[in-house]
Amino acid sequence: MPVVDLWYADYLTFAAEDSLAALAATLDDDERTRMTRFLFERDRRSYAISHGLLRIILSAYAAVEPSLWRYRHNDYGKPEIAEPAQHCALRFNLSHTRGAMLCGVTRDGELGVDVEATARDASCVELADRYFSPSEVADLRRLPIDARRDRFFRLWTLKEAYIKARGMGLAIPLDQFSYAFSDGEPTPTVRISFAPPLIDDPQNWQFTERRMTPSFRAAAAVAAFDRRPATFVWRRIKSAVRNGGGAIDSEEF
Length: 253
Ligand SMILES: CC(C)(COP(=O)(O)OP(=O)(O)OC[C@H]1O[C@@H](n2cnc3c(N)ncnc32)[C@H](O)[C@@H]1OP(=O)(O)O)[C@@H](O)C(=O)NCCC(=O)NCCS
Fold this sequence. Notes:
By secondary structure, the protein is an alpha+beta fold. Helix content is about 30%, strand content about 35%. The chain has one domain (about 5-250): CATH 3.90.470.20.
């Protein structure tokens, strides 16, 4: 059965100087260059945490030192493992927002993840009008006003998860595919549909989503290689740096 691990971390867990230094020490030269280009210390720290944790997470799947992973990127910037070459089949996707990161890992398909801070100031209906599909906007507008914000972030995270799984980012227009929710059924479901000219098959896709905390929402999309139902395992990272090594301590939630 396809398994997708979803590793979530709150940056506060890694704010101590020794944690930050240990995570930054795992970065390669390219990442260090990118990190130092950020103007604000806050952004440099976030970068060290998310990219350092990504390396330590990958090392939970293979006997590879966190600092030894090398990535390559597709034409739209999606990173994948380049070295060690024998681990190229391991797929991952990273998302970070102010204060938290989410990393999906699987051996069983193409995946994309997204985490968003929901407390940010966003004019939900206006943004939806601009970016989402007509059916999504209509569904959103039918909801009571106090339910719209949550629906907006559900849609946003799910839409980002899909375009990131496809690896094409915003080259896929967000209004050319739609989500519909059936929250009233015994098992809530999320269905995707595609409008021409976007060519894809809804049967390829499986999704999961959740409210992580009152301030963060997250979603993941996977196209499992054999289309069997995937198991999504949510893991909260409690610590990732022990004795200077790359051990990771997490709990399912
Ligand atoms: C770049 C993009 C793929 C994701 O951007 P994002 O949501 O700002 O950022 P996330 O934190 O979720 O993901 C960034 C990470 O995804 C990965 N990534 C980069 N390009 C990618 C791509 N084409 N496909 C999948 N993953 C990609 C990288 O690991 C990147 O991290 P890094 O830049 O620190 O190396 C793209 O979809 C984008 O720009 N989205 C913003 C869309 C938006 O504004 N939507 C508004 C809806 S109302």
